[in-house]
Amino acid sequence: MFDPASGHPYPDGHDADGTPAPHALLAPVLGLIGTWRGTGRGEYPTLDEDFAYEQKVTFSHDGRPFLRYESRAWLTDAEGRPLRPSARESGWWRLQPDGRVEALITQPTGIAEIAVGHAADGTVDLATHEVALTPTAKQVDATRRRYTLAGPGTLTFAHDLAAVGVPLRHHLAARLVRGGAKP
Ligand code: HEM
Questions:
Q1: Which residue intervals define the domain THAP4-like heme-binding in the entry (predicted)?
Q2: Is the CB of residue 161 below 6 angstroms from any atom belonging to ligand 1?
Q3: How far apart are CA 86 and CA 26, in angstroms?
């Protein structure tokens, strides 16, 4: 099982049918495992205008009852060409019995979130349990994230945000397709 290319004996699985076999507690999120890429739009009351972006999301696992999560996004112009790097984050989604999820997510903007929620029937719904901020981070009070498997090979993502004095409201919506290919 030792894979010299990965440099250690326990490479992550990026495929629900591959090796290592996913842990039984990952059953409610098996459909998410792999790489997704697609486009989205964002807005917030503090911004002059809404924006378009592209996003790549990866969920992998090492056979234990948690997912490794990684997301990168970049802003795009009206023709879909990249403008500049935008939000990125990574973390761990700990699956509990009954589909409960405990997620730890950190961002280079100084924000660390713990979110809790539930995974069932192709949907994961996570809401803030706690947010920790570095001294210079923007004020973020809460988020809500929904991931929905919407038909074969399609994942929709919706993100609400309470930050910089604005109560929880829509920030992002994206539609991703499996495989990492440019949509
Ligand atoms: C796909 C992911 C995301 C994208 C593409 C995105 C994009 C943006 C953009 C374009 C802005 C305007 C400022 C700028 O131009 O950089 C912004 C502001 C902001 N975003 Fe996001 N964002 C994403 C995810 C998140 C997440 C996960 C959080 C918090 C947990 C967050 C919190 C904020 C905050 C606090 C602001 C500042 C609002 C203000 O000061 O007016 N964003 N985002």
A1: 26-178
A2: yes
A3: 30
pTM: 0.95
Instruction: Give tens-digit pLDDT for 111-168.
Output: 999 999 999 999 999 999 999 999 999 999 999 999 999 988 999 999 999 999 999 9
CATH number of 24-178: 2.40.128.20
- How far apart (Å, rounded) are the C-alpha atoms in residues 176 and 39? 7
Under DSSP, is residue 58 helix (H, G, I), strand (E, B) or coil? strand
Q: Which residues contact 175 (CB under 8 A, 6 or more apart)?
A: 38, 39, 40, 150, 154, 155, 156, 157, 183
**95 C-alpha to ligand 1 centroid (Å):** 27
Judged by DSSP in three states, 11 sits in coil
Tell me which residue has its CA closest to atom 22 in ligand 1: 87
Q: Which residue, among 139, 180, 179, 182, has the nearest Cα to 162 in the 3D structure?
A: 139
Q: Which residues contact 65 (CB under 8 A, 6 or more apart)?
A: 23, 24, 25, 26, 94, 95, 96
